[in-house]
Amino acid sequence: MLGGTMARTLDRRTLNRATLERQLLLARSGMSALQAVGRLVALQAQDPNLPYLALWARLADFRQQDLTDLLDDRSVVRSSLLRGTQHMAAADDFLHIRPLVRESLLAGRQAAFGRVTGDWDLDELAAEARTLLDGRTLTRPQLARALAERWPGRDPQALGWSSQALVPVVHPPPSGTWNTRGATPFALAEDWIGRPLEEDPGPDRLIHRYLAAFGPASVKDFQAWSGLRRMDADFERLRPGLDVFRDENGTELFDVPGMPLPSGDVPAPVRFLPDLDNLLLAYADRTRLMTGERRKAVCVGAWVKATLLVDGRVHGVWKLRHDREEGRAELAIELFEPLPDASEAEEEAARLLDFAAPGAVHAVRITVPE
Questions:
Q1: What is the mean pLDDT of the chain?
Q2: 234 CB-contact burial (10 Å; exposed 0-12 / middle 13-18 / buried 19+)
C-alpha cells in the first residue's frame, strides 16, 4: 500500500527502465570506479575480467587500471560473497556483507563436503587455518597441504574449501586483476583490510542497498540475488519505510522511497554485458529483461552467458576471442532476432574491442537468425 491507496502496478517496461537507470545502463556515468562498485553492491568476479567489463559497460572513460588500483590499495576486495560465488566489493561493504552470508557459505560447504567432514571439529579447523594465515598469504593448495600435515589422511580439497567457508578471507592482487589467472591466494580479511568484520549485522542495510541498485523487486528477487533465505519477515518489518508496488502478475515489489522510476519510453542504448553480470542474476523473475525462452538459452546451469542488450532487453549473446600471439581479436555475436539498428551495435562492439583488446586487429562477426 502507498499512502493508504492500492499499490501501483508497474509494467515490465517501467521495471526495465528503473533497473537500467539504477544499474548505470541508460547512460554511462561519470562516477568513479569505487563509487560504482559501491552503487552496484558487489560485482561478479568468477573470472578476473568480468568486473572490469561490467564497469566498462557502465562508466564513462573507465580504464582497466582504475579497478586494479582499487584492489592494490585495498579499497576493493575479492572474495566469496553472494550465493557463495566470487565477487568484488568495496572493503567497507565486505565487512558487513561477509557476516551476513556466513550461513549460506557454510551451507554450500556442507553440501559439497559434509559427507567427508562429518566427524571433523570445524572450530578446530577454523582456528588452525587462522593460525596458518596469520600475517601471510597462502594459496588454497598451500593452505590445504599445511592443514593435511596437521591432519594426515584428510581430503586436502575438503580442507582447503572448508577453510574458505569457515574463515573470512580475501584474495589479494594480482590475483583477480585483468587477464591474471592461476592459483588463488588467501589472506585473512581483517588483516588485509586492517579492520574487523562487523559482529552480527542485521540484513536491513543490505536490503536497502539491493533495492537502491536493483529495485523495485520482490522478496524472492532479493533472495535469488543474495543467497539469503526466509527473508519475508524482514521485509514485513521494513514495510512501513518502503514503497510498495505490484508487477503485472500481482507480485508485491518493494523499493526505497524516492528512487527514480523512468518512463518506459525512455531510450535505452545498446550495451554489451559480460558473463554472469549482476543485472542478469539479480532477480528470481527476470522477465523485465528477457523472455522465459531466452532465459533458457542464456542461463545454462550455473552459468549466465555474456549478453547484448537492445532496447534494454536481452537480444543476443557474445563471446570475445583474443589471440594475443597473432594480435587478433574477434567479437562473435549471436542474435536471437535481427537488429533494428546494426550500426549502433557495431559501434558499441568496436568500443568493447578497443577496451578489451587494444592494439589487436579487430573483427566483429554477427550471426543473424534465419
A1: 95
A2: middle
Provide the pLDDT confidence category of residue 369 given band limits of 50, 70 and 90. Answer: confident
Phi and psi dihedrals of 331, rounded to 5?
Answer: -100, 110
Pairing mode, if any, of strands 243-246 and 8-9?
parallel
| String of DSSP letters for 51-71 | HHHHHHTTBTT--HHHHHHHH
- DSSP assignments along 261-289, one per residue: ---TTS----EEE-TT-HHHHS-S--TTT
Quickly list H helices, 114-203.
122-133, 140-150, 156-166, 189-193
pTM of the model: 0.95
State CA 351 to chain mean position distance: 23
Contact assessment for residue 213 and residue 23, using Cβ atoms and an 8 Å cutoff: yes
Residue 340 vs residues 22, 129, 320, 368: alpha-carbon distances, Å: 25, 56, 23, 12
Burial 269-302 (b: 16+ CB within 10 A, else e): ebbbbbbbbbbbbbbebbbbbbeeebbeebbeee
| Residue 85 CA: distances (Å) to CA of 76, 104, 225, 226, 304 | 16, 11, 11, 10, 13
3-state class of 345 per DSSP?
helix
**Running DSSP on this structure, what letter comes out for residue 4?**
T
Helix-then-strand count for the chain, H and E: 16, 16
Q: Considering Cα of 186, then 187, then 193, then 197, what sign does the dihedral take?
A: positive
Phi, psi of 46 (to 5 degrees): -70, -20
Whether the CB-CB separation of 315 and 335 falls below 8 Å is answered with yes
Q: What is the largest CA-CA distance in the chain?
A: 66
CB atoms within 10 A of CB 190: 15
d(CA 218, CA 226): 12
| Nearest Cα to Cα of residue 161 among 80, 46, 42 | 80
Q: Please enumerate in sequence order all residues whose Cβ is within 8 A of that of 286, keeping only pairs 6 or more positions apart, or say none.
A: 280, 295
- Predicted confidence at residue 40, as pLDDT, reads 98
Average pLDDT over residues 57-66: 97
